[in-house]
């Protein structure tokens, strides 16, 4: 009885004591953050609301609604969100005094990768090391790798094609474009990054053989492992101090198993690549730049650091582009005028080539409307909708004329900024033409799909090449239909904001 009473009192008293303490801190308001609008009544008191929005996977939506009434929103006791281009420059721009926030510390082992490290010097060292590998001139050497994966994808898509003149629908099989875009990018980044030919596209599946830390082999699905890992991680990383405890309390959640599986995928891929190197194979891929510089001088990185860099490459290099490619084709299908204009531009560029199945990069690289469509897709549905938090320097920082004290977490929500009506006319409409207009240059200050400044995406050349080549090849070869005219993908946010299945019907243009 005594034991039950003790447990009951503790269960009641702990939350009361916690919120009582939070309320005192809120009233004391040492950082003067009470002047900003709250996301909800809880936001000034505790991280709970923000973590809850992350668990629900709709952080960007809730925040977007809050920003309809306020430019600055306090989303948690120590977190401010700014929906303004001036804030974007102050928070992310070159010369910013901000650093990455403790969000990036959550759940890490000994080695951090270029994306997660918060230390400016360590980041500069890593960025210098990786710069040549990610440079466009290097990437051009790997065009064949991308082309080979596009060719394999088109072979698969051909099998799904329907004939316009045949009665259909009841037994017609749609293609889940979303799933195939992930499989395409997973295959492509393994080849670009590690010279690994997984041939997942040919198999039509993302099942991979991996080894656990005890050397036992097992099979796991890349997409499920990565997504489960990202989903559970992003839910709790907004409360980094509580991350370890929350992980222990949710030990039963199978997504922690996905986290282990994704780490095994990366470690296995990295180990295979090193074995091939030790066997004397000369491979031309991103990993070769981790092993040594362009003159062949070894970098002498530890295995842990190389594995960490492979982890971000396989993660950021597949998920983000898979999302962008899925979103863009969906947006083109529901905007037939834009699709027609794009198709005319691509057809013209490919005119006169013998084999037009895979669009050669040199032919489509500078097509203005193709680039405008890609940018408009990234504006309207940015793969990274909110997750780029920064920390103000200990001495504090001026953001948009407000003095923000030191060690405050600050961010610009990409989704809201890129739909800010003061900057983008018809913000919710897909209008690639805006990127070809006279004021396009001004719009770029509020275009942050890759973030900005020293911590901006290092992989943007890769994603543009993949998107340009694949979208050009798709619109040139096929016409498309959604399974229902009013179909809309469902979105769920982890670190990225990912659409669910996008089932479409395909038709070969040369057969219609
Ligand atoms: C549409 C595609 C992509 C989008 C929207 C995107 C977006 C972003 C964003 C927003 C950041 C900043 C993250 C932060 O501040 O925490 C970032 C960083 C990064 N991205 Fe991407 N990315 C894309 C494709 C890629 C690809 C293809 C790769 C590599 C193969 C890649 C590798 C990286 C790396 C390594 C960083 C960390 C850079 C640093 O901190 O110096 N990304 N990306």
Automatic annotation (TrEMBL):
Pfam families hit by this protein: p450 (PF00067)
Gene Ontology annotations of biological process type: mycotoxin biosynthetic process
Gene3D superfamilies reported in the protein's UniProt record: Cytochrome P450
Transmembrane segments: 6-28
InterPro entries: Cyt_P450, Cyt_P450_CS, Cyt_P450_E_grp-I, Cyt_P450_sf, Cytochrome_P450_monoxygenase
Keywords carried by this UniProt record: Heme, Iron, Membrane, Metal-binding, Monooxygenase, Oxidoreductase, Transmembrane, Transmembrane helix
UniProt cofactor(s): heme
Binding positions for heme per the UniProt entry: 457
GO molecular function: heme binding; iron ion binding; monooxygenase activity; oxidoreductase activity, acting on paired donors, with incorporation or reduction of molecular oxygen
Family, per entry: Belongs to the cytochrome P450 family.
This protein's name: Cytochrome P450
Species of the source: Penicillium roqueforti (strain FM164)
Source lineage: Eukaryota, Fungi, Dikarya, Ascomycota, Pezizomycotina
């Amino acid at each position: 009885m005594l034991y039950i009473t003790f447990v009951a009192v503790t269960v009641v008293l702990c939350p009361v004591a916690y919120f009582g303490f939070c309320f005192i801190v809120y009233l004391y308001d040492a950082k003067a953050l009470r002047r900003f609008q709250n996301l909800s009544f809880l936001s000034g008191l505790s991280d709970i609301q923000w973590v809850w929005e992350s668990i629900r996977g709709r952080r960007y939506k809730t925040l977007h609604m809050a920003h309809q009434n306020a430019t600055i929103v306090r989303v948690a006791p120590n977190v401010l969100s700014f929906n303004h281009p001036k804030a974007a420059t102050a928070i992310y721009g070159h010369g910013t005094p901000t650093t990455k926030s403790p969000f990036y510390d959550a759940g890490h082992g000994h080695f951090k990768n270029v994306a997660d490290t918060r230390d400016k010097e360590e980041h500069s060292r890593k960025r210098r090391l990786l710069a040549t590998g990610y440079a466009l001139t290097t990437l051009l050497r790997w065009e064949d790798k991308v082309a080979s994966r596009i060719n394999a994808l088109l072979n698969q898509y051909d099998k799904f094609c329907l004939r316009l003149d045949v009665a259909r629908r009841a037994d017609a099989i749609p293609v889940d474009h979303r799933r195939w875009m992930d499989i395409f990018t997973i295959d492509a980044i393994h080849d670009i990054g590690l010279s690994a030919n997984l041939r997942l596209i040919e198999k039509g599946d993302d099942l991979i053989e991996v080894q656990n830390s005890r050397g036992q082999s097992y099979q796991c699905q890349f997409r499920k492992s990565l997504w489960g890992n990202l989903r559970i991680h992003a839910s709790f990383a907004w409360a980094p101090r509580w991350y370890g405890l929350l992980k222990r309390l949710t030990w039963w959640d199978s997504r922690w198993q996905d986290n282990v599986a994704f780490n095994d995928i990366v470690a296995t891929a990295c180990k295979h690549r090193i074995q091939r190197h030790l066997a004397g194979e000369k491979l031309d891929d991103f990993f070769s730049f981790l092993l040594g510089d362009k003159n062949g001088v070894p970098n002498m990185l530890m295995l842990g650091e190389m594995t960490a860099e492979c982890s971000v490459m396989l993660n950021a290099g597949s998920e983000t582009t898979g999302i962008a490619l899925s979103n863009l084709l969906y947006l083109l299908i529901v905007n037939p005028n834009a699709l027609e204009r794009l198709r005319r531009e691509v057809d013209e560029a490919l005119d006169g080539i013998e084999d037009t199945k895979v669009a050669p990069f040199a032919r489509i690289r500078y097509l203005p409307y193709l680039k405008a469509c890609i940018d408009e897709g990234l504006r309207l549905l940015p793969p990274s909708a909110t997750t780029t938090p920064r920390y103000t320097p200990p001495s504090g920082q001026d953001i948009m004329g407000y003095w923000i004290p030191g060690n405050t977490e600050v961010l610009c929500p990409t989704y809201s900024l890129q739909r800010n009506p003061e900057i983008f006319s018809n913000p919710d409409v897909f209008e690639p033409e805006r990127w070809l207009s006279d004021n396009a240059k001004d719009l770029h200050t509020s275009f942050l799909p890759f973030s900005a400044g020293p911590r901006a995406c290092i992989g943007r050349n890769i994603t543009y090449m993949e998107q340009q080549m694949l979208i050009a090849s798709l619109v040139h070869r096929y016409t498309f239909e959604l399974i229902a005219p009013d179909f809309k993908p469902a979105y769920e946010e982890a670190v990225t904001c990912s659409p669910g299945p996008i089932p479409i019907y395909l038709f070969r243009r040369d057969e219609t």
